Amino acid sequence: MISFWYGVVAFMLSVYVILDGFDFGAGILHLFVARTDRERREVLAAIGPVWDGNEVWLIASGGILVLAFPRAYAVGFSGFYLPLMIVLWLLVLRGLSIELRSHLDNPLWRSFWDAVLGVASAAMAVVLGAALGNVLRGVPIDETGFFAVPLFTTFRPGRNPGVLDWYTVLIGVFAFAALAAHGALYLAGKTEGAVRERALAAARVAWPAVAVVGLGCIVCTWQVRPELYTGLAARAWSWPLPVLAAAALAGVFASLFRGRERTAFLCSAAFLASTLAATAAGLFPLMLPSTIAPAFSLTAAQAATGQHGLRVALIWWTLGISLAVGYAAFVYRSARGRVRLDGP
Amino acid sequence: MVAAALTSQQGVSDPLFWHRLQFAFTVTFHYLFPQLTMGLALIVLLFRLRAFRGNAQAGAAARFWTKVLGVNFVVGVVTGIPLEFQFGTNWARFSHYAGGVVGQTLAMEGTFAFFLESAFLGLVLYGEKKLGRVGHLAATAALFLGSWLSGYFIIATNAFMQHPVGHLAVDGTLQLASFWDFVLNEWAGWQFAHNMCASVVTASFVVAGIAAFWTLLGREEDASASLRMGVTLGLIACVLQLFPTGDRQGKLVARHQPVALAAMEAVFEGGPQAPLAIIGQPNLETRTLENPIYVPAALSFLAYGSFGSTVKGLSDFPASEWPDNIEILYYAYHIMVGLGTLFIALMGAAGVQLWRGRLAASRPLLWALMLAIPFPYIANTAGWTVAELGRQPWIIYGLMRTAHATSPRVGAGDAAFTTLGFCGLYAVVSLLFLFLVGGEIAHGPEHAPAVQPPAPAPSARPAFQAREP
Q1: Interface touch B100/A100, C-beta < 8 Å
Q2: pLDDT above 60 for A108
Q3: 3-state per-residue secondary structure call for chain A
Q4: What is the pLDDT of residue B443?
Q5: What is the pLDDT, as a whole number, of residue B452?
Q6: What is the pLDDT of residue A100?
Q7: Containing H/E element for B167?
């Protein structure tokens, strides 16, 4: 039951990264791939109907985390106090920038919100990656079971690291590249003309960067948390995941250079999903590794609530998530096809 | 609530002070928006139902209020996300202790309500042409359902903190023992009814008040449908707010939180035939209510249904169990009840004039309706202040004290920094909201359907592109 809920949290966070990831990617790229007001409105129209629903996956993941693993939620959220507050402010700013931009027909108003969207999206992508990097590297949980981590210390992973060190920044850069590349493929599939051409060009730059930085991440993770690979090796069912990730990445390149951006986008989603799934499988059963001593690491079993609560939640969650997938399918279906703006 | 934290006895270098101040500020600011969203979702649905039967004015009113609902909804969403995080960031020991129970309703809100709302909001705002009449009505009903479900899950969470049931203490944390006892908490039922009536009161006052503004400017065509809806629904909701919902909520407080009742009424010495203080200033030094105006024995009757019942006073409880900030609790309660009474009077008078067909000509009454718009917000805020301060010094009544619920490693400096950050961010959000909604109100509903530009597919536009060329 505890493994199941660990999987649910990993699943919901992965869906979040895949769905909101292309919103972040579109936000990062729109200043470059869309130059006129009309082009920018095309980009916003491509993410407009779906971004809010995509973001709900993050909120719903947080809800599942507090329900199933209250201790992990409490320890993790209070430990990452400042970075999470920065995430909140960025999410508020991004939401406002998407929704408010087109309320006024004033070039200064629109340029302002365009810049806010670009900066908030770029920062969110880096922060998401750095967050994953922190979980992989570990946090200074001590005998009290809690931790506090400053934004930065010496920029080196160790017993008392900061949120930002060379390793977490590297993962942040990887997330930035991957989400920008993912968003480029989404935009290429949703737009026409100049925006599509520029998005494809951006994807052709970003994907090689993803491959190179990704390779660096694999090597550096070996340095920082070798247990991830031993964990992966010990669980035979997880062996197809890295293979799938590599195959999906190859699929992105193959379809991208043949101009099949929608196939490439699906491969990109599969790449993100299998990479995150492999990471979660390698980390299991840990939720938050301790940099002080392995004995202080927080495991899923220690963090989980009682069996009765988990069993009850299984019933309603199955129903609820089926409905949620149904709504999402409906919204994406009604938004299918390339964006066509009316008027000038 | 903000002021409540400011008067807390610990100094500003105590993290508890900043955690309380921050949560009080962010939750109070946030709830200015959902209280309108939930009530307005009902009103829009009622307009749509009337428009469905061919009422063109109701259709124009529905389209106008949907636009206001859209902007209001977005601000509610973006200010609500921080709260979901703050249980963990600022109140880690609370979420560690009780997350296994309150996490059920918090997760259900995300799973059942947020997905529903986010999927249908865009369709409600821009899908009228595409979905057809039946589909659009269904989408509006889904949005209404989502917003009210969301309200229930949050109320059920709060009800557990006020009156914990359905739980079990295991190894120093709380676990779920009975899902139905927890979700169908008696406290949650009455609190939900009281809160949703209050939400409909806010929305009715906003709709009636804006309609009064248009009427005073001579724009009766814009106003008439909204004026009728706002006053009719407002009168019903104001009465239900007092009885039975407020009455039953009060009786629950009397039964389960008698010390909170004593503090709300500033009853220092208890006894039978306890009087009800209409007004007066509590003095904690002398333990008296100064300059009081009393209704004899009324408090005994309201709390326990009989004039002879004994009401316990604060002196019957050790001071360590008294709510802190008794003064603010007392005033918040009296402001809530006082405003609620005035609302019934105002909506009653407006209802009589509406029934006689004279409301549009009653200028003083229209002025009063227009100027009354802020007051339901004040009453709602005061009501929640009563609920939250009355519960003190507990975060979960009888189980966990607020002082023991904070994050152990988050210092006053961090919490102060983020509190100031929220103040700055929300100041910007307020200005943007007033600017955009003010523009919509000045513009008013669009009547003749013939001059409406063809609405593009919802898929092709981000939500709320109300002014797209």
Answers
A1: no
A2: yes
A3: CHHHHHHHHHHHHHHHHHHHHHHHHHHHHHHHHCCCHHHHHHHHHHHCCCHHHHHHHHHHHHHHHHHHCHHHHHHHHHHCHHHHHHHHHHHHHHHHHHHHHHHCCCHHHHHHHHHHHHHHHHHHHHHHHHHHHHHHHCECCCCCCCCCCCCECCCCCCCCCCCECHHHHHHHHHHHHHHHHHHHHHHHHHCCHHHHHHHHHHHHHHHHHHHHHHHHHHHHHHHHCCHHHHHHHHCHHHCHHHHHHHHHHHHHHHHHCCCCHHHHHHHHHHHHHHHHHHHHHHHCCEEECECCCHHHCEEHHHHCCCHHHHHHHHHHHHHHHHHHHHHHHHHHHHCCCCCCCCCC
A4: 87
A5: 44
A6: 86
A7: strand B167-170
Interface test with B, best of A99, A116, A127, A195 (most B CBs within 10 A): A99
Measure in Å the smallest separation between the Cα of A55 and chain B Cα atoms: 9
B100 to A77: CB separation less than 8 angstroms, yes or no: no
CB pairs under 8 A between A and B: 257
- Is the pLDDT at A165 greater than 80? The verdict is yes
- Which pLDDT does position B453 carry in this prediction? 44
CA distance B373 to chain A (A): 25
Contact A110/A40 with Cβ under 8 angstroms? yes
Q: Which two tokens stand for residue A196?
A: 């599509």
**DSSP of B351-387:** HHHHHTT-GGG-HHHHHHHHHTTHHHHHHHHHHHHHH
Residue B250's nearest CA partner among B321, B205, B303 is: B303
φ/ψ bin of B48: left (φ > 0), alpha (ψ from -120 to 50), beta (otherwise):
alpha
| CB atoms A336 and B459 under 8 Å | yes
- List per-block mean pLDDT (blocks of 10 residues) for chain B, which spans 469 residues: 50 90 96 96 95 91 93 90 92 95 94 91 84 90 95 96 95 93 95 96 97 93 93 96 92 93 92 90 91 91 90 93 94 95 96 94 96 97 96 95 94 93 94 90 74 43 39
Judge whether A321 is closer than 8 Å to chain B, CB to CB: yes
Residue A37, chain B, CB below 8 Å: the answer is: no
Q: Residue A257 is encoded by which pair of tokens?
A: 């250079």
User: Considering only alpha carbons, which residue of chain A is nearest residue B407?
Assistant: A78
What pLDDT is recorded for position A335? 81
E-strand spans in B296-453?
310-311, 394-396, 400-401
* Contact (CB<8Å) B130/A334: yes
Q: Is A106 on the interface with B (CB under 8 A)?
A: no
Give the rounded distance of the alpha carbon of A295 from its chain centre: 29
- Provide the shortest C-alpha distance from residue B435 to chain A (in Å): 11
- Tell me which residue in A49, A78, A341 faces B92 most closely, judged by beta carbons: A78
Tokens of A190: 């949703």
Within 8 A of B457 by CB-CB distance, chain A residues are 334
- ipTM of the prediction: 0.90
Query: Does any CB of chain B come closer than 8 Å to the CB of residue A56?
Result: yes
- B426 contacts: CB under 8 Å, gap ≥ 6: B25, B26, B29, B79
Contacts of B120 in chain A (CB under 8 A): 327
| Partner-chain residue, chosen from A66, A80, A87, that has the shortest CB–CB distance to B103 | A66
Confidence of residue A339 (pLDDT cuts 50, 70, 90): confident
Using an 8 Å CB-CB cutoff, list chain B residues near A75: 92, 96
- For chain A, give the percent of residues with pLDDT over 90: 60
CA dist A155 and A326 (Å) reads: 44
Q: Which residues of A touch B102 (CB under 8 A)?
A: 66
Q: Are A140 and A149 contacting, i.e. CB atoms less than 8 angstroms apart? A: yes
The pLDDT value given to residue B446:
82
Q: What is the pLDDT of residues A50-92, one digit of tens each?
A: 888 899 999 999 999 999 999 999 999 999 999 999 999 999 9
Flag if A103 and B436 touch (Cβ within 8 Å): yes
